Amino acid sequence: MQRLNNRIDSPKLPSFTLNSLKGKRKNDMGSNSSFNSWPSSENASTTSINQNFITQTKAMINNIWENLSIPLEDAIVYLDTAILQVLKYSSEEGVDILFENGAANVKDINKVPENDNEVINFDNSNSHYIKYPETKKIVFIISQYLCDYETKIKNILLNSAYQECHVYTAISESSHNLRIQRESPNQERDLGSIAFQYLQGNDDGYFSKFQNKLKQWINMGNEIQQTGLAVEHMIYTVEYIPLLWALFSSELFLIPSSASIFPYMNSKKYKNIDHIEGGIQLSLLPPEEQSKIYCISSCLSSFLEELNLKDDLFAIGETSHLIAREIVSHSSSAARKKSERTASLILIDRTLDIGTPVKHLDNSIDKIYNILSRISTNSYDLNITSDYLIDNRDDLDNLTPIKCSFSHQMNQNTLEFIDDLQKTKGKEGLILIKKKLLNILKREIPDFETSKSNNEMTLVDQIKSYIDILKKNEMTLLKYSNTLECISAVIEAEEDYKCSKWEELLSFEKILPFSLEDINDNFSIVQHISEALNNLVQRSKALEAEEMPGFDIEDIIELIIFIYSILKSSFCESEESFEMIKHKVLQTIIEIEGNRFVDAFELERFVTSVFDNIQYCLQSKNMLSYYQNSFSNLHNQTSIDSVVKTIATSIMNGEGNSSLSLSNANKGNGYNPNSINYIPYGQSLTHFFSGIGRRRQNQPLPTQNDIIIFFIVGGVTFNEVNELMNIGQEYNVNVMVGSTDIATGKTIYSNLYEQTNINKTKK
Questions:
Q1: Listing from the earlier edge strand, what are the strands of the sheet with 342-349?
Q2: Are 79 and 177 part of one and the same domain?
Q3: Average pLDDT for 300-318
Q4: What is residue 675's three-state secondary structure?
Q5: Burial of 397 (C-beta count, 10 Å sphere; 0-12/13-18/19+)
Q6: Whether the Cβ atoms of residue 296 and residue 740 lie closer than 8 Å to each other
Q7: What DSSP character marks residue 336?
Q8: Dihedral angle, C-alpha 644, 646, 648, 653, nearest 10 °
Q9: DSSP string of 462-516, one letter each residue
Q10: Which residues pair with 365 in a beta bridge?
Q11: Bridge partners of residue 271, in order along the sequence
């Protein structure tokens, strides 16, 4: 089951590779297509839009290898994690496509051994022999700004003797130029820096300047290795390559290069109240955060450019507003402005609703992502065992365990399976899998007969029995490997689910809305929440007594987030109640974690930090003019609508352009926290924000364009994706959904406060 696109650092098995025959299968996704082939608005449907997007994604990958002619023959190729994600989810062969085009080796640039990043000096006195690399050619494919990887690229080149170096970046040259121009005044006057050359009036493109850097580093590397190679015989290039998005399903695209971005909370220190734009100011962010904003803005601008969509920008939330303003800056000379196809890009902060991801949702894929762990930070793929597909084999001993991948690799059958699974809940997903396997068995085994149902066998056991039949034939296993690997994830999640705390926490989520429904005063609500936390402590001790995992800090924080997501805004805004709940949570953590903490002050600081961020998120949500949190929907958990669904429905009904509140209008502030913000092209921000009344009259409606793209900054759940697609169908509007990440309780918790910091307080 070894797949290079899944685990690039795992060995390729010589005698058993499911990927070995994939390249021989007939292409079932169609041939190249034009990026200008969107269906007309009159006869377009959400299904046709998504299918067209799939085709264009495949065409983009084909265009890169066929037209750009990346010189991979006998090259060492360095990629970053985001590029690996794009190849995994948006190409038929994943990273294997690099090997098929001649690459000698492929490495993750963020995981290279330490000695790959150290300069090797030749020791003449000891006649120290330095072994030359197996190849003289090196290729870098990077998703970020080159200036952020400059030191790493330099050290790799100085470490060996190369004759040829090609650098590709998913950030356009114009975006590189824009960033350098902005940062140049703050740079130290290093005579060799590209920024200093800008200060001296040398305004050649960034790529040209970086090529000169490559020339210097390659020459230095050859001097260190004493190859005697002349500079004029060296080849070095820098180019833009649009490896921008990962197509997780036909209804969801992700931007891997921005997987780590999350809307800023308690953002007062990043604001200048006198600035006419209002909201967060890019220049006040730390340098590493500025780089993230530059990156996502450039990628979204290039994304629209690749799809040739003339866009109107809308933002809900402070960070989304900042990103939208930056997209305008990155699109000053965009060719898409002349396109006849139009789109509304609506950016939404995840912090407006942190309650939905922490719920133990019944959606099949949400459940998988909440139970199984990711393979690494900022990766969308999961740790999935191959035990269900491969029997123990003697020739696999002493090798890295083979892992499966939850990805379709642009295989149409698997893509359709993931789309169908995304729409199922509970046992529906298992029933879907059972039917899928039965169809495969009947197709591949002519004499296959369904055995009589055994009432003692669970759905999972039946699925396992079907897989046992399939895996006896290696060719059949290879043929359906993508789908079977995804099915393995479902089985593993179901098995882990039996030993998880899922049902325990779900019971709290089901009971609390009912029990809180008739309580009106804040003090009684605090008492009820305290009682729920006491029950949590008792239940945790009971689980541990049964040698089951008890509850931990993450469970407590996620439960508190859920509780606040269903309470009235009047309670959420009560400082006294907030402090009482915070104190009770601190007490609960101490009771559950026992003596595992060595620093009470650090623990208190952690809880305070988390509650400050929770409070910011609640205040941001409650400020939205078209979101009213009431107890009318508290009869059961599933009736509580997500904020994303509420916003989308309001936009479809034309409620998203409600007038500004008087307090904001009087300030002349460009950012409006109460409603959707329209960010225009083609005029200066100062001129635009000086006339808010005029803007309100001329502001376009999101529904006036051919396509509405909802992009959630900070992660999206699959349940929300379904809600948005259903709303599109209900209102007969073409909808696309994108995000930076897949949102779960774990991602919300880790962003509220860094996990590593709280771990420092444990023994």
A1: 246-249, 252-254, 734-739, 707-713, 342-349, 310-316, 677-679
A2: yes
A3: 92
A4: coil
A5: exposed
A6: yes
A7: G
A8: -170
A9: HHHHHHHHHTTSHHHHHHTHHHHHHHHHHHHHHHHHHHSSHHHHHHHHHHHHHHH
A10: none
A11: 280
CA distance 4 to 91: 13
Distance (Å) of CA 166 to CA 113, 153, 218, 241: 21, 11, 11, 12
| Edge-first strand listing for the sheet containing 235-240 | 105-108, 75-79, 137-142, 164-169, 235-240
Q: Are residues 295 and 414 both part of a single domain? A: no
pLDDT in tens, 721-736: 999 999 999 999 999 9
Proportion of the chain in helix, strand, coil states, percent, rounded to 5: 55, 10, 35
Number of domains in the chain: 4
* 216 shares a domain with 74: yes
Closest CA to 281 of 322, 316, 314: 322
Please give the DSSP secondary-structure letter assigned to residue 168.
E
Q: How far apart are CA 438 and CA 445, in angstroms?
A: 10
Q: In sequence order, which residues have a C-beta less than 8 Å from that of residue 318 and are 6 or more positions away? A: 263, 264, 267, 279, 280, 349, 620, 671, 673
Give the per-residue pLDDT at 153.
Answer: 93
- pLDDT of 59: 76
SS (H, E, C) 12-27: CCCCCCHHHHHHHCCC
Helix (H, G, I), strand (E, B) or coil at 602: helix
Strand (E) or helix (H) holding 78: strand 75-79
DSSP H helical ranges for 624-763: 643-652, 662-667, 685-689, 692-698, 718-730, 745-752, 755-759
Q: What is the pLDDT of residues 647-696, one digit of tens each?
A: 999 999 886 554 333 233 333 346 777 778 899 886 444 444 444 444 44
The CATH number of the domain where 149 resides is what? Answer: 3.40.50
Domain end residue (candidates: 475, 499, 523) = 499
